[in-house]
UniProtKB/TrEMBL annotation:
This is ROK family transcriptional regulator. Belongs to the ROK (NagC/XylR) family. Pfam families: MarR_2 (PF12802), ROK (PF00480). It comes from Anaerolinea thermolimosa. Residues 30-64 form the HTH marR-type domain. PROSITE patterns: ROK (PS01125). GO terms for molecular function: DNA-binding transcription factor activity. InterPro entries: ATPase_NBD (IPR043129), HTH_MarR-typ (IPR000835), ROK (IPR000600), ROK_cs (IPR049874), WH-like_DNA-bd_sf (IPR036388), WH_DNA-bd_sf (IPR036390). PANTHER family: GLUCOKINASE (PTHR18964:SF173), ROK (REPRESSOR, ORF, KINASE) FAMILY (PTHR18964).
């Protein structure tokens, strides 16, 4: 019986290593040396140096002096914070939060205000646009300095189309082109994701699930949702509804949910 061996193309493997090195640099506090990257990833120093040189030529990574108790300070790598700025927008059922950050993830300014998602996409997105203007003005920046915007919403996402599908607590939003609407407005790339999924990524990157490849993030608010990471990737299921746990009844005589 013959045996078939499958191999990963060299270019694909290099890209995988490149993304892994970027994550390692981004999430290592105080920076990390080439030698330490090679040790943690099981790569040769030459392979690491070649990838790092590519990243530095793109401006994604830069060298800096690391902190050390005594002796010569080592040269470490960090994400270049000056490459650009990003805005994160968390839209809940009754609030919206906006955060301005540099490319390294350092938060520069934040706004959080009430927002009723039941008012529908036109009113809510117009309000979000006003808040983005306010955020930038208070930070002394302009839209031209923003490289990308990330938006989280409490509903199932149709990734390819950049919209929500059948969101239980977002009446009037079904299949509204949120991503395209905002991209046309701001002329910058916009990423639309489920808020619980983004919460899972946040815990993986900075919180209790840091470094874990498989985790579940449970969000309890107006409804209950979960963000799932399987083998380091967001898992949405075939319909994009994985993690949509549903609602809970706190008061049987309370107000009727918007989903009926």
């Amino acid at each position: 019986m013959s045996t078939t061996f499958w191999t990963v193309p060299t270019q694909n493997l290099k890209n995988l290593n490149k993304h892994a090195i970027i994550d390692l640099i981004r999430f290592t506090s105080g920076g990390i040396s080439r030698v330490e990257i090679a040790r943690r990833m099981g790569l040769t120093r030459a392979a690491v140096s070649a990838i790092v040189d590519d990243l530095m030529s793109l401006g994604l990574v830069r060298e800096t002096e690391g902190s050390y108790p005594s002796g010569r300070r080592p040269i470490v790598l960090e994400i270049n914070p000056d490459l650009g700025h990003v805005i994160g927008i968390d839209m809940g059922a009754s609030h919206v939060m906006l955060i301005l950050a540099d490319f390294s993830g350092r938060q520069l300014h934040e706004i959080e205000v009430p927002l009723d998602i039941n008012e529908g996409p036109q009113i809510c997105l117009a309000r979000v646009a006003e808040l983005v203007d306010q955020l930038l003005k208070e930070a002394g920046m302009s839209l031209s300095q923003i490289s990308a915007v990330g938006v989280g919403v409490p509903g199932p996402i149709v990734q390819k189309e950049g919209m929500v599908s059948g969101p239980p607590i977002m009446p009037g939003w079904d299949r509204y082109p949120i991503r395209d609407h905002l991209q046309e407005l701001w002329q910058v790339p916009v990423s639309l994701n489920n808020d619980a999924e983004l919460g899972a990524v946040g815990e993986w990157a900075y919180g209790a699930g840091r470094g874990e490849h498989n985790l579940a993030y449970i969000k309890v608010g107006t409804g209950i949702g979960a963000g799932l990471l399987l083998e380091g990737q967001i898992y949405r299921g075939s319909t994009g509804c994985a993690g949509e746990i549903g609602h809970i009844t706190i008061d049987e005589n309370g107000p009727l949910c918007t989903c009926g």
